[in-house]
Write a structure and sequence with these properties.
The protein has 7 helices and 8 strands; from the N terminus they run H-H-H-H-H-H-H-E-E-E-E-E-E-E-E. With 202 residues, it is of the alpha+beta class. The longest helix is centred in the middle third of the chain and has 28 residues. The protein is elongated.
Length: 202
């Protein structure tokens, strides 16, 4: 069987490409899934593609009934271009927003698989972070726009752009001089505390 034959290629584009676009875009919005067998991804892609056509199906039937391809070839091409390449992104974005809605949190599972991914996926959020290591040592730092956290399925690691000195009473005193940040490996961590706002010895 030659997959590059015109009829098979059209079927591949129609029933695989939209699903793969939806899956890849979703992985950009949330932490990507761990590696899955390509055959299972193909089945998922076909299922998502079918769902992609199910919602606008009455519109598809209408355009085919009035033979839009004859009356407006450019409009016909644009419609299917949007349906195959753009509409999967729109649906995926809406679904992500639904799953992230606090009001639906009890009925629909949240897209973030772990608290780690949930807290660090929030955009424009800055924190002062106090990390308690398994040996009891406390490390403080600032998580800002130049900091970075890994996401699933990668092991949890954290880069804090500033390292802060923590007093014996657990207060954030000041950033360390000439500090260029610190990388924290979570296999050495007992727990992490987050604080909002600017801290001046509090």
């Amino acid at each position: 069987m030659n997959v590059w034959e015109s009829d098979k290629l059209i079927l591949f584009i129609l029933f695989v490409i939209p699903g793969f676009i939806a899956m890849k875009f979703y992985s950009m919005l949330v932490a990507p899934d761990a590696y899955r067998d390509s055959s299972k991804q193909l089945v998922d892609a076909i299922a998502y593609s079918c769902f992609n056509y199910a919602i606008p199906f009455p519109i598809i039937l209408y355009f085919e009934k009035i033979k839009l391809i004859d009356s407006s070839p450019n409009g016909y091409i644009f419609f299917y271009f949007f349906l195959i390449l753009i509409f999967p992104i729109v649906l995926t974005y809406i679904w992500h927003k639904i799953r992230s809605c606090p009001r639906l949190r009890q009925k629909v599972t949240h897209p973030a698989g772990k608290p780690w991914d949930f807290i660090f996926s929030k955009q424009n959020k800055t924190y002062f972070i106090k990390v308690t290591l398994k040996d009891g040592k406390v490390v403080g730092g600032f998580y800002g726009e130049n900091s970075f956290s890994s996401s699933s399925p990668n092991p949890e690691q954290l880069f804090l752009e500033q390292t802060w000195i923590i007093s014996d009473k657990g207060k954030f005193e000041r950033p360390k001089n000439d500090s260029a940040g610190i990388i924290i490996l979570t296999n050495e961590v007992s727990h992490i505390e987050f604080r909002h706002g600017v801290i001046n010895g509090k």
